[in-house]
Each structure stands twice: as C-alpha cells, then as structure tokens.
Amino acid sequence: MNDRFLKQINIDWEKIECGNYLREISSLNSVDTVSFDSNITFFVGENGTGKSTLLEGIAVAYGFNPEGGNKNYNFSTYDSHSGLHDAISLVRGVKRPKSSYFLRAESFYNVASKAEDYRGGDSIEAFYERYGGKSLHQQSHGESFLALIQGNFNEQGFYILDEPEAALSPQRQLTLLIEMDRLAKKGAQFIVASHSPILLGIPDAILLSFDNGKIHPCQYVDTESYQVMEMFINNREYFLSHLLSKDYIN
Ligand SMILES: Nc1ncnc2c1ncn2[C@@H]1O[C@H](COP(=O)(O)OP(=O)(O)OP(=O)(O)O)[C@@H](O)[C@H]1O
Prior knowledge:
Layout: E1 6-11, E2 33-35, E3 40-44, H1 51-62, E4 88-92, E5 99-104, H2 108-119, H3 124-127, H4 141-152, E6 157-162, H5 170-186, E7 189-193, E8 206-209, E9 216-218, H6 224-234, H7 236-243, H8 246-249
Parallel strand pairs: 3-7, 3-8, 5-6, 6-7
Antiparallel strand pairs: 1-2, 1-4, 8-9
Helix pairs in contact: 6-7
The chain binds adenosine-5'-triphosphate.
Membrane topology: Peripheral membrane protein
Pfam family, one: AAA_23
Domain ABC transporter: 6-237
C-alpha cells in the first residue's frame, strides 16, 4: 500500500492561461498526473526540460516558500515562481510528516540569510545547534548543505530537493546517498531533481525522465548523467581528442 506523505499530484491545465510559458514546456504540458510510488523519486533529464518548474510547483502547492526552507520560511527576494502551484492538487497520504524541507541549491544563500534573521536574540551556538553549531554563512556551501540535512532531516520527514549535489564533493554526495537511503528505508520521502550520477544510483529509487517531451520512468543506466560520465571516465583520452578536435568545435 502507498502510505507516502505525497502520493500523487494532479495538474489542471485549464487553470494555466493561454500564452503562459508553462504551456510551452513539452515534458509537462501533456501531463495530468504524477504518482510517487517509491520513498525516493528522482526527476532526471536535460537542462531546461521542466524538472525545477514541477518541483517548485509541488513545493509551493505543499505550502513551502518558493525559495526554499522549512514551512515556517516566508520571504521573497525575487518573485520568479511560475504559478504552476495554482493548477496542482495534491493527493496526500494519511500520515503527516514530522518534518519537511524544500532545499534549493540556487537560493540556499537567501535561506541561510533568512535563518540569521530568524535567530533574533538567540546565541549562534544555541540557534544553530542542529546545523553543527555554526551559522550557515560561516560554513562552506557544501558543509552547510550537509549540516542542514544531517541535523534536521528525520525518518518521518518529507523533503523536496533541487540539485542537492550542486555544492557537494563526490565524497559528500556519497554521504548524502547513505543518509537518504537510511532515512527513506525508515519512512522518509524524498522528491529530488538531480544530475548526479552518484545520487541517482540509490537502490529502489524511481527515476522519472523529463526527456523526449514527456515524463516517463527510466532506468539508472539509461540516464544521460550516467552514460556521459561512464563514457568520459572510461574513454577520457579518446573522448577529449574528439571533443576538442577542430572538426568538432567548428
Ligand atoms: N520565468 C520564466 N519565464 C519563461 N520561461 C521560463 C521561466 N522560468 C523557466 N523558464 C523555462 O522553462 C523551462 C524549464 O525550466 P526548468 O528550470 O524547470 O528546467 P530544469 O529541467 O529544471 O533545468 P536544469 O536542469 O537546468 O535545472 C526552460 O526552458 C526555461 O527556460
């Protein structure tokens, strides 16, 4: 039985006006329903295929701030979100998550700044205890990402992550993989947009590809993230000589 926090979303395209760019995103405009049938669902595919747009639409429909944070974050530094959330209805599970977070690599700096505002008169050590005892701005991008995940995510949580690998070294991507796998096995749910050939390899995750103008399940070894990385590492010299040849560049 699917007892996930978010089981499915439905999109009512009649609520999106004609001329809105959302109607031009070919992977999305033919989709009415997306189901979440595993505790980890990855959105994969080429740049610009609509992964972040759908992720953000789901996050905002769920009650998150478009720039990220937990559900208490309520601020806007740049009003760029799409309006897709107005057309999305959520099919929630019976259980409610004990924690939730929308993590976006691209606006994490703003979220870290906002955390500092919310600290008020609390000491840094007390307020940031769950983040390794230091302000998020006093840690590197990757350190603060991982501190946030390790200190705040739990086994009964619901998490939406947009390219969490962006700040992480390969070693720390492996740490994140272990953490996600551990939490998901205990009941946490993740919906993640990613290009990481490391993260996408988590066992039992469902991969939804946004390539070829539709959203469809795909296998790890069929993702471009895996194939390009595998080809590059195994045939680096041949690959580079071809890529950097004058014929290819011209
Ligand atoms: N405010 C906007 N106005 C018009 N088009 C937009 C706007 N925001 C995004 N788009 C377009 O929507 C499409 C989907 O963008 P989106 O950011 O969802 O892609 P993505 O799959 O997440 O890409 P990436 O892997 O690079 O993060 C892109 O073609 C993008 O140019």
